[in-house]
Specification:
It comes from Periophthalmus magnuspinnatus. It is found in: Membrane. GO terms for molecular function: signaling receptor binding. Keywords: Disulfide bond, Glycoprotein, Immunoglobulin domain, Membrane, Signal. A hairpin with a 4-residue loop joins β8 and β9. This protein has one domain: Sandwich (Immunoglobulin-like), CATH 2.60.40. By secondary structure, the chain is mainly beta. It starts with a strand and ends with a helix. It has two helices and nine strands.
């Protein structure tokens, strides 16, 4: 099954990108940023697998480990940047099925780079 949703977020805040599996206990979770094909977060064998994580997401992503067995694959993204805006794909695999969820992250905020530059020049 696949679905799509849009999530608004503010720069520098923490945002949750929702994803869940009807199948209950999840074996594998993969979060990708689709435009750049960045690996955002991966979970397998009961633990985070971050070797291939894109540099720009280092230290800013987490899942909800105690809820994964109940089908929650949502991603928490902290210190959100303007460059985080875009489309994300959540892939979940259980022992008997797989599912895809697309999440579009819309980032708005005071701290856009243009504003910072404008302030600096005056």
């Amino acid at each position: 099954s696949s679905e799509s949703r849009s999530v608004p977020c503010v720069v520098m805040e923490t945002c949750v990108l929702p994803c869940s599996s009807d199948g209950g206990d999840i074996d594998v979770i993969r979060w990708l940023k689709t435009e750049e094909n960045f690996m955002v977060h991966a979970f397998q064998y009961g633990t985070d697998q971050l070797k291939k994580q894109a540099e720009s997401f280092r230290g800013r992503t987490s899942l909800f480990p105690e809820q994964i067995s109940r089908g929650n694959a949502s991603l928490q993204l902290s210190h959100v940047k303007v460059s985080d805006q875009g489309s994300y794909l959540c892939q979940t695999f259980t022992s008997n099925s797989g599912a895809k969820t697309w999440v579009h992250l819309r980032v708005k905020g005071e701290h856009t780079e243009e504003n910072t530059l404008r302030r600096r020049t005056h």
